[in-house]
Design a protein that fits this description.
By secondary structure, this protein is mostly helical. The protein has a single domain (2-58), classed as 434 Repressor (Amino-terminal Domain), CATH 1.10.260. It has helices at residues 5-14, 18-23, 28-35, 42-52, and strands at residues 2-3, 61-62. A two-stranded antiparallel ribbon has the order 1-2. The protein starts with a strand and ends in a 6-residue tail after the last strand.
Length: 68
């Protein structure tokens, strides 16, 4: 399972709001996907890492899916 919990922590630590991400090119649909732990593209992950000056580990984590 994809979890974007680290993203919200990284954003808080760096003082970056969702509004700032949207103003920097992350669209509303993508923000909704992030809030709901849905898939995003590698390009979006790259953009988030660039905007936040971080690594993918600061944005996303993978947890085992208990249903499988």
């Amino acid at each position: 399972m994809i979890d974007y919990g680290p993203l919200w922590i990284t954003m808080e630590k760096k003082g970056v709001s969702q509004y700032k991400l949207m103003k920097s090119g992350i669209d509303y649909r993508t923000m909704d996907q992030l809030r709901n732990n849905k898939n995003i593209t590698a390009k979006t992950l790259e953009k988030l890492c660039t905007l936040l000056e971080c690594t993918p580990n600061d944005v996303i984590t993978f947890k085992p899916d208990k249903d499988k």
